[in-house]
Each structure stands twice: as structure tokens, then as C-alpha cells.
Amino acid sequence: MKKILVPTDFSDVANNAFLHALGLAKLVHGELILLHTYELPIVDNQFAPQNYKVLFDSLELSNFERFKNELPKLHKLAEENGFEHIKMSHMIMDGDLIYNIKEIIKNDSIDFVVMGTSGATGWKEMFIGTNTGEAIANLSVPVLSVPEDSKYTKLETIGFTTRFREKDKEALSNVIKIAKSAGAVVKCLYVQTKETDNTQATYDDWSEYFKHEPVQFFIIPNDEVNQTIEEFIDHQNIDVLAMMTYKRNFFQWLFTTSFTEKMSYHCNIPILALHE
Questions:
Q1: φ, ψ at 219 (rounded to 5°)
Q2: Average pLDDT for consecutive 10-residue bins of the chain (276 residues)?
Q3: Which of 144, 148, 218, 231 could be a cystine partner for 13, CB 3.0 to 4.6 Å?
Q4: How far is CA 77 from the centre of its chain?
Q5: pTM greater than 0.85 (yes/no)
């Protein structure tokens, strides 16, 4: 059974991502692990040791009580949307969120991480320019990032961007497995720029390799990669966009402000970041 880690702060954004995580669990025959983290404050060393303990115990109890009170709401949300059969377990941890995520991935054989994002700023902060973005971009498992306004619906079309590298075939095969479970189709996009080093033989090889799968290939000549992806999402009615992160500089270059604003405020679709 696949394990899906879902960090939550019990906000509307996190609850929306929780629904998408349930939908993913249904498709991959998975279970959810809900994670709530909190950070204990750094206090002045003039505090007496007993005061440390009183303060920390109080904060830990407060976080535990909130965690305990919010869990029934999530279970009710799952039931209301027909996901009551999805197995769920729960974790509460103190410390840095991303550090804890990495530790759980390492120790619990996590297959996916699902996280909510809030607006264009949230997208940018999630993927570039912050320690959190650096960590997310370098996690060892696929990350499904869900914009706050992305309503969960039946999955019909998955987009997949590729450079037609041989190693991309495995990633596309994994996306196709999800599509088959959903009865969906995969639309695979390659933006052919002037610097492309692919040939017609490469395209023919991929078409032959996946000829029996529910996948369509789109090769679009254009040097404006971001714009082409945006238009592809709109014109092909993409529900979820799966993307290889490649190298860090490519990932940072792709998620420019204009692109993230488009994604967050117009397309409102989740992105499944697949790591090399």
C-alpha cells in the first residue's frame, strides 16, 4: 500500500489539499499519514529550568489538544466526500516542518507528499527563493502541490511535460498508472525550442514505446516555454500537471512570477513534481 504524507495546519488551504490527497490515495491504493508540526520557542537563558518546563509542557499540551480536536473534522470531511474507506494515521511532532518531512520519508518509506499552497506568493515561496522551497524541490519523492482554489474533481486529463530524455520514460509510466486507475488520459507536452537536440527518431521511439497506453504526444515549436505550457494547460483542459524537476536552476527558471500567477489565479490546478 502506498503511503502519502499530508502535512497540515488545519487551515482551509491544508484541508483542501487533504481532499486531493484522499483522491490520490484512492487511485494508488494508498493510505494517508497526517502530520502536524509545531516549533517550541527559543527562550532567554535567564529563565529558570523549571520555567522552561512549564512553558514547553503548556505549549505541547496546547498543540496536542488542537490536534486532537481537529482530527474528527478531517474524518468527517473524508466521509462527506466518499473517502471514509481510506486508511489514515496521525503524527504530531515538534521542530522544523521540512526536516520532519525528510525524516519521515526516510524512516517510513513515504511514496508521495501532498501540500497546499496559497496564492501566487505561496507558489513562489513553495518552489523558489526560500529554505522551504529548496527542501521541497529536493525531496526524494513526488510532491503534489495543491493551490488553495483548486477544487477536487474527477481526474480526466493529466498533463506531463518532458524533454524526451530516456529517464523520463519511467516517470511517464508512473503517471500513466495513475491515469489508468482514474480512467484518465495523459497528454504529454514537449516544447521544441531552437536549442532542441531531439530528432524525429526520438519522437517516433517514444510513440512506439507507449503506443498501447492512454497517452497523447504534443510537440509544439516555440521558444516561449512558459507561455506554451500555460496555453497547453488551458487548451487541453489539464486537471493535474506532472513535471520533472530536473536540475535546480531549471526548476527555479520555470516557476517565474508570471507563470505562478497564471497557475494560481487562472488555471488553479495541482502540480505533481517528479524528482530525478
A1: -110, 110
A2: 92 91 96 84 54 51 68 92 94 84 93 80 46 58 86 94 91 96 96 88 95 96 86 93 70 48 57 82
A3: 148
A4: 20
A5: no
